[in-house]
Amino acid sequence: MELSELKRMKTLEEENGKLKKLYAEQALELEAIKMLLEKKW
C-alpha cells in the first residue's frame, strides 16, 4: 500500500469516527424526545 493510500485511509477512518459520534448524539436526542412525548402530564 502506498503512502498516499495510507493517508487517505486514515482520513476516512477519522471522518467515519466523527460521523459515528454524531449519529450516537442524534440517537440519544431522539430517545430523550420520545420519552418526553410519551410521558403523561
TrEMBL record:
Name of the protein in question: Putative ISBp1, transposase A
Gene source species: Leptospira noguchii str. 2001034031
Lineage per the UniProt record: Bacteria, Pseudomonadati, Spirochaetota, Spirochaetia, Leptospirales
